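USER: Write out one fold?

ASSISTANT:
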Amino acid sequence: MPDSTLIVVESPAKAKSIQKMLGAGYEVRASKGHVADLPERDLGVDIEADFTPQYEIKKDKQPVVDDLKKAARGKRVLIATDPDREGEAIGWHVARLLGLNPQNPLRVEFHEITPKVVRAAVQQPRPIDQRLVDAQQARRVLDRLVGYQLSPVLSMEFRRRALSAGRVQSVALRLLVEREQEIEAFVPQEYWTIEGQFKSEGQPFKAMLYSVNQERVQSGEKYLITNEAQAQAIVRQAQAIQNYRISSIERRERRRNALPPFITSTLQQAASSRLGWTASRTMRVAQRLYEGVDLPEGTVGLITYMRTDSTRVSQEALTEVRQFIPSHFGSSYLPDKPNIYAGKKAANAQDAHEAIRPTSVTRTPDSIRKYLEDEEFKLYQLIWQRFVASQMTPAIFDQTTVNVTGNELVFRAVGSVLKFDGYLRVYGREEGDDAENLLPPLRENAAASLLSVKPEQHFTEPPPRFTDASLVKVLEEMGIGRPSTYAPTIETLERRNYLERSGKSLKPTPLGREVTGYLVQSFPDVVAYDFTAQLENRLDDIEAGKAAWPKVVREFYEPFLKDYNKVPQKLCPKCGRPLELRVSRFGQFLGCTGYPECKYTERLEIKKEPEPIGETCPSCQQGQLVRRHGRYGAFISCNRYPECTYTRDEAPSTGIECPKCHAGEVVQKTSKRGKPYYRCNNQSCDFLVFDPLVPEKCPICGWNEMAKGRSGKRACSNPSCERYGGPDLKALNERRAEREGKGKAKRKRGEKTTRPSATWADLEPLIAQLGLPSDQAEVARRTQGQQKAVAAVAKELNLPEETALKLFRQAMFKLRMEYGKSKAAREGEGPKVKARAKGKAQKPKPSQPSATWADLERFIGQAGLTAEQSEIARRSKGQQKAVAEVAKAMGKSEEEALKLFRQAMFKLRMEYGKARKETVGA
C-alpha cells in the first residue's frame, strides 16, 4: 500500500484546513470546483444516443488537472468533494481524469470540518455513488438542452445580448412578475376601525370595536365599516349608550414552541430578515464558516455542511447541547426529551446531511468573536442561537380576552403577557411579533364607562414584493429547485438585469417582464410551476435508483422540443435560409446558416434612432434636443452634433431635492464600471454621493441622510458635517488638482502632454505602403477617415451599412498602427524592453528589412508549395492587393485565393528565414 495519501477536495481553504488536521502522510489538493463540463460553445449532448454528454476539461482547469495527475503518482487517492450531488459529480470527473475506478472505495465525506470527523471519515471510504452522479447529469443535460436552445431564441427575439432562460430561474422570475402584476392590479379598499377608551372600577383600558348587531367588523377580507359616514354613525351610537359592562373575560395559557434548526432555505430567510443579507451573501459567509477558521486550538470548521434540506441532528450533538442548556440557562429551559422535528419531505427525499448547526455548541459566539470577521460572527451567532433554541422549552404567554358590551355594540381588548421566555431567552422574538399589551385587573360583569371613542380610516394594501427570504420560502414550498440553487438563481436574475433591488424588495425590470411574457406565451412548459417541481421529484427518483436518467430527460425535453419547433424562424433576406445567433470576438451577431455560400450578417442589437424631445438647444439656439442611447444609458444632446456638443444627463430621479443647491434634484447615474452614484441634475451644482439618499434629514446640519449598505445604517451626505459617511472629497480634489497642475506645468515648459491625432493627410499615403485590400482601401479613401461618412459611402458602393462600417474600421486600424510605427521610427522611439537581470532598459535591436518578392521568388521550388499556391504567388508577385484580380483570372473565389496566397507566403518567408538563419514571421 502506498506510504502517502492524496486527498482531493473542492476549496483551497478547505484543503488548507484538512491538511493541518491530518498532518504527515497526507497531501490535500483542491479541484477548485468543477474540472470538467459540457463544451462552452457546443451543445455537447448527443440527443440520438440517449442524451450522452460529451465532457471536456474546462479551459481554466487544465493546469489544475495536470497538477492533480502529477500529485497522484504513486499515492493512494481519496476524493472528498462536497457531500451533495454536485460534489459527487465533481468527484466522479476527478476519478475519471486520474484514471481511477469509481467503483473502488475512494470517496469520503466530511459533513463537518473538525479533526475528529475528518480523521474518522478517511478511514471509511466508499465507492462513488453513481445514482447521485446520474441525478446531477440529468439536471445538467436538461438545463443545457433547454438553456442552449432557448437562450439564443430570447436574444434573437429581443435583439439583446446575454439573455438567458432556465428551468428554475425562469419560474422564479415568473413569480416576481406575477406578484408585480398583482400589485399593479390591486384596488385599495377603504375601511374604518373604532377605538374606545373605557374605565371599569377605576381602571382605564382600551378596546377595539369587535361587532355590531352580532356582525363582525372584520371577517377575513370583508369589512363592515367602509366609509366615514358609517363610522361617524357608529361613533354617535356608541356615545349614546349609557350602560356598558364587561360581559366576558377569558384567560388561557398559550405556548409557542421552539423553531427547528436551520436548513438552507430557512437560513437564507432568517439572514435576509434579521441581517438584511442576500441569499448569495449568506451562502458565501456560511461556506467560510464550514471550511474552517483559525482558532487557538487549530483550524476548525465552525458549522456543519450548509446545503441541506434536513432538520435531523446527530445523537452526539443532541447530547452536547442538552448538557450545555441547564448549565448555562437553568434546568427549567431543558425539555424532558430532545425536540425532534419532522421533515416536510417523503421518506425517499434527500436526507443525506444534518441540519445546519455549530460543530460544537461549547464554542459560543462571544468566546470566538475576536477570531471572526464581522459578518462571520453575525452568521455564526444566528446559527448557534437557532440550534441551541431548538432544544429548549417553549415560551409561555398568558393571554386575556375581554369583551365590553353596550346594547348591540361589542368592544374587545386582548392582552398577551410573556410568562416564561423559554427558547426566546436565546433566539429572541421574530420581526413582526406583537408587543405585549398589558391589561389591568378587571372583573367579569362589572360596569364600564366609555371615556372617548376615536374612528380611524385605513386602506387595504397590495401583497408585498418578494424579498430574498420570501422568494426562497415560496420556491421551497412549491418544490422548485434545491438548497444549492436558490442563491445562484437570484444572483443570475440580478446579473441578467431581470430584477432590481429596492431595499430588501425584489422588483422585476421591464426586460424581465417582457421575457416572462414571451416565455409564458411561447414556452408554457418551461415556466410552468408543476413542470419544474415534478422534475425535482424525478431527480430524487434517479438518486433513489427508481428511474433511469435518460428516460427522465426525455420526459421533460420532448414537451419543450414541441414548443421550440413552433417558434417562427428569422430568415436571411438574401437567400431565405434561417438566421442563427453567432459569437465572434466582437460579441454576438446574426448570421446566415448558409455560410460560407451566403455571408449575410446582421447586428443583434438594433441601433435606436435619436428621439426628439421638443426642446431647442440652449447652447447653439439652432438645433433641437434629442434623446440618444449610449453605452451607459440615455442622454440628451443637440441634433447638430458634432457642430454643437451640448449634452446633459437623463437619469432616473430619486425624487429628492438636492440638499446643496435646492434648485435641482438628485438623479441616479451609472459609472463606467457599472456602479451607481447620485448627483444633482443642476449643471451648476457639484453635489455627488455614492450611496442612495433617503428622505430623512440629518439632525445636525439638515442635509439628507444616506443609506449605507444593507445594514440599515445612516450617515450624513454633507462633507462638512461630523456625521458625513462618504469618501474624502477633499483628498480626491487634491489628487485631481495635482494631476491637472502637472499637465499645466508641462504645457508651460512647452512639453507635449498628449500626442496629436493623426489626420487623413498623415494616413492616406500609407494605403499603398500597407497594401490594403481593395474594398478596405476604397471605403477609407471615400470617407477620408471620417466615420460619419460611412453611411453615404455604403449607399454609393451598394453595400450594407454594417459591412461598410466593418471595412472602414479594419482599414483605419491598420493605417493608424502603421502611422504609429513610422512616427516612432522617425522620432527614434523604439520599444523599450525591460532587462531580465537588473531591470535596465535595453537598446532596441535594429529591425531587419522585409523580404522583397525578388528575395522570396527563388525559394518557390524548395518551399514545398502546391501547384495552386505557386501559381497564385507568382501571379500576385507577393502582393496581397493583387489577389482579387488573380482569383478572377484563375476562376476561384476571392476567399479561396486569399487562403492559398497566405499559405504560400508563409512557406516562402519561413524558407527565406532559414536561409538567413533568423526567424521570419508569417
